[in-house]
UniProtKB/TrEMBL annotation:
Name of the protein this chain belongs to: Alpha/beta hydrolase
Family annotation (PANTHER family): AB HYDROLASE-1 DOMAIN-CONTAINING PROTEIN-RELATED, ESTERASE_LIPASE_THIOESTERASE DOMAIN-CONTAINING PROTEIN
Stretch list, region Disordered: 27-46
Keyword flag Signal: yes
InterPro entries: AB_hydrolase_1, AB_hydrolase_fold, Sec-Metab_Biosynth_Hydrolase
Signal peptide (from-to): 1-23
Alphabetized GO MF terms: hydrolase activity
Length: 294
């Protein structure tokens, strides 16, 4: 099965590519213009408390660091929520060797954090993070209030990320995917078009600076995390689910997103207009409005 999936994935590879992470810098976004505006922030403590008091655990996507969520952490905490992130091993600034990282490695990192936080968690996953939170929610469902997908892979039992990605032929990621050994990546010249197309073209200096810094922390993704299927049962199926779709996503196309969330008829769907694959950078106010209102 692994060889079959590797062969199919290789059809989309343009080159064989290796990438070294030459930066240990922690991502710190410029918040001066991209944190929620005063019109979005509810000024009274009463309203903040009413909207807050949730526990959010935010799980980042493939190739990216946990610092991707920094704007959301700041914004959600302003409304009185507890907000947590987790660095998936082998990504960001974590130096776990890539050949030692599996989907289970990432799921275990999330469930360990869930056990630290306690019950009542709103579990949020971006992109590949959707695969991780689905399995984590299955494994520790009693800790979860809601499972929230932000332009994310929302799989059915027995599916892998690659099962969906390989059929999303209009995806910039699928068109540029690269395999080398146990890792998978896309060339650096495809980053902006795949992940930050709206933000990069926004002419907003703060957003373009955020994109520049976060790109320095992108590293290869363990291939096994893409080819391993999830195992989901009624424990997962019975949970409340939310899908946040971005209309200008070029990494997971809107049609692919719709195909996935349509498999779950009770999912609540929200849409962010003119949003690329990284709304936490390019559309933070809109994403925050949805998350704080859950």
């Amino acid at each position: 099965m692994r060889n079959l999936k590797f062969s199919i994935l290789a059809l989309f590879a343009l080159i064989f590519f290796s990438c070294e992470d030459n930066s240990t810098e922690t991502y710190q976004p410029n918040l001066s213009q991209n944190t929620p505006s005063s019109s979005i922030q509810e000024s009274s403590e009463t309203n903040a408390k009413k909207k807050g008091n949730k526990k959010f655990l935010l799980v980042h996507g493939a190739w990216h660091p946990e610092g991707s969520w920094n704007k959301m952490v700041v914004g959600l905490e302003k409304f009185g929520n507890e907000v947590y992130t987790v660095q998936l091993p082998g990504l960001g600034t974590d130096r776990t060797p890539i050949n030692e990282v599996t989907l289970a490695t990432h799921v275990n990192a999330v469930t360990a954090k869930m056990q630290e936080i306690g019950s009542g968690i709103t579990l949020v996953g971006h992109s590949y993070g959707g695969v991780v939170i689905s399995q984590a929610a299955e494994n520790l469902s009693s800790y979860v209030d809601q499972v929230v997908y932000v332009s994310a892979f929302m799989l059915l039992d027995g599916q892998s990320l690659f099962d969906i990605a390989a059929t999303d032929v209009n995806s910039v990621v699928t068109q540029n995917i690269v395999i080398t050994g146990d890792s998978v990546f896309i060339p650096e010249n495809a980053y902006e078009n795949a992940f930050y197309n709206y933000g990069q073209n926004s002419n907003n200096k703060n957003i373009t600076e955020d994109i520049y810094f976060i790109k320095t922390l992108l590293v290869p993704q363990p291939l096994a995390t893409f080819t391993t299927p999830v195992s989901l049962s009624s424990a997962y199926n019975s949970l409340d689910k939310v899908y946040i779709s971005c209309t200008d996503d070029r990494a997971i196309t809107p049609q692919a997103q719709q195909n996935m969330y349509s498999n779950y008829p009770d999912v609540d769907v929200y849409t962010i207009q003119n949003a690329d694959h990284s709304p936490f950078i390019s559309r933070p106010n809109q994403l925050l409005n949805i998350l704080k209102g859950l």
